[in-house]
């Protein structure tokens, strides 16, 4: 039988879907990107729009696949525990994803639909262990789940539960296995990645130290980390271990202190700025990217201008811009002074324009320099890959994928660097 996963949302969902597919593969099922006998839909619920997109995809797959087995799981289900659809055969939330194969095979025997949800998450991390991924150059490893920040706009603490960490020994074994299977770059991911270890008497920096000792691992990437987790211990690890790439994605969300307070973020702009200065003293050419939400309830034009100016002051390399989207079940949904969509659209446009300028300037700073590129794809006489600091590079020569080469950058084409193979 053929199995297909349709994944929405974050890198954690990507990892979990990869795990489910790997378990099906072990049982002899065929993994496909086309028409399938079994569909696994891993949903997202970070915004109302995400909910809507998840439902549309579920309905589309049902319409186009009359006889397929449909499994729906993830955050949208956790946020809407009353979700019902007679055509969906298995409904689960964010718990029991490791049991999807077992649930499908049970359905094949009984033909009985099943919905399994829990009132709360327990304190145990639901272990998943991946030996390979569909990508042959970069592997994700989920080390943590849950969040306890309770930002006023975010539903995720309610759909993912409390902080839970994978055992350090399991993380190290999983990465060792991936490296032995040819992966040179590993991305650590979680819902609140930098909070890893707080529940199992260890810490994120300690885990990083141990991972950096693994022979054969060339690059260690952190999917995202909060500014409040860049403590002295982390900064020392960053300074001492070159395997940790020079790219940190650090969500800002707003460059106005009053908006940050309303968001229930755990820092103000002065704190953020001082931390970034410290990081750049350690890694002068580091790529620092961020997320910013515009049009948060009560955000005045002056507040938005503060965000623009602060983004320029930090000199981010790229800004992922999101218009605020109301999310039922969050405090922000009930706040007064909701911003009209037309104003949000204008602010998004302005901030994206700034991001493009900042990114272009950062890319231009590498023209004439030699960088190391991990080749990911090749076609005819061209190859594409990324540097450690996550710059996309095009080489006008076919190079074997999963190979790290030195490339001398000679120009920028929009937001892609181009170069020739160096010495």
Task: Write up this protein.
- The protein is α/β, with parallel strands linked by helices.
- The chain has 12 helices and 19 strands.
- It has 4 domains: 2-116, Methylthiotransferase, N-terminal domain (Rossmann fold, 3-Layer(aba) Sandwich), CATH 3.40.50.12160; 121-245, Transcription Regulator spoIIAA (2-Layer Sandwich); 249-364, Transcription Regulator spoIIAA, CATH 3.30.750.200; 370-421, OB fold (Dihydrolipoamide Acetyltransferase, E2P) (Beta Barrel), CATH 2.40.50.
- The strands form 5 sheets. Strands 2-1-3-4-5-6 form a 6-stranded parallel beta sheet, with helices on both faces. The chain has a 5-stranded mixed β-barrel with strand order 15-16-17-19-18.
- Helix 11 links the parallel strand 13 and strand 14 (318-323).
- The longest helix is centred in the last third of the chain and has 24 residues, at 341-364.
- It starts with a strand and ends with a strand.
- The mean pLDDT is 95.
């Amino acid at each position: 039988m053929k199995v297909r996963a349709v994944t929405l949302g974050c890198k954690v969902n990507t990892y979990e879907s990869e795990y489910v597919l790997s378990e099906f593969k072990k049982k002899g099922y065929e993994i496909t990107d086309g028409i399938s006998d079994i569909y696994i839909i891993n949903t997202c619920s970070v915004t109302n729009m995400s909910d809507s997109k998840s439902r549309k995809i579920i309905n589309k797959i049902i319409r186009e696949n009359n006889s397929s087995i449909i499994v729906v799981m993830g955050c949208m289900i956790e946020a809407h525990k009353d979700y019902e659809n007679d055509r969906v055969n298995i409904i689960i939330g964010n718990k029991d994803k490791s049991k999807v194969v077992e649930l499908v095979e049970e359905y094949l025997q009984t033909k009985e639909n099943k919905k399994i949800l829990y009132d709360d998450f327990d304190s145990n991390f639901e272990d998943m262990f991946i030996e390979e991924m569909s990508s042959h150059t970069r592997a994700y490893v989920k080390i943590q789940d849950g969040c306890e920040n309770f930002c006023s706009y975010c539903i995720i603490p309610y759909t993912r539960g409390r902080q839970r960490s994978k055992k350090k020994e399991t993380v190290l074994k999983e990465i060792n296995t991936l490296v032995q299977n040819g992966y040179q770059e590993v991305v650590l991911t979680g819902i609140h990645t930098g909070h890893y270890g707080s529940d199992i008497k260890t810490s994120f920096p300690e885990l990083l130290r141990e991972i950096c000792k693994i022979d054969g691992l060339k690059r260690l990437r952190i999917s995202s980390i909060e500014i409040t987790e860049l403590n002295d211990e982390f900064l020392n690890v960053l300074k001492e271990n070159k395997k940790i790439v020079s790219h940190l994605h650090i969500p800002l969300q707003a460059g106005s202190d009053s908006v940050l307070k309303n968001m229930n973020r755990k820092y103000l702009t002065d704190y953020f700025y001082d931390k970034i200065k410290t990081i750049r003293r350690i890694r002068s050419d580091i790529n620092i990217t961020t997320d910013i939400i515009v049009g948060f309830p009560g955000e005045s034009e002056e507040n938005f201008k503060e965000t623009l100016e602060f983004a320029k002051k930090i000199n981010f390399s790229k800004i992922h811009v999101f218009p605020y989207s109301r999310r039922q079940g969050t405090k922000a949904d009930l706040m007064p002074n909701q911003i009209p969509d037309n104003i949000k659209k204008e602010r998004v446009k302005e901030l994206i324009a700034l991001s493009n300028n900042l990114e272009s300037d950062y890319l231009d700073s590498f023209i004439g320099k030699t960088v190391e590129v991990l080749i990911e794809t090749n076609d005819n006489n061209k190859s594409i890959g990324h540097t450690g600091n996550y710059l996309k590079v095009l080489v006008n020569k076919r190079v074997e994928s999963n190979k790290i080469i030195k490339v001398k950058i000679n120009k920028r084409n929009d937001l892609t660097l181009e170069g020739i193979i160096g010495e």
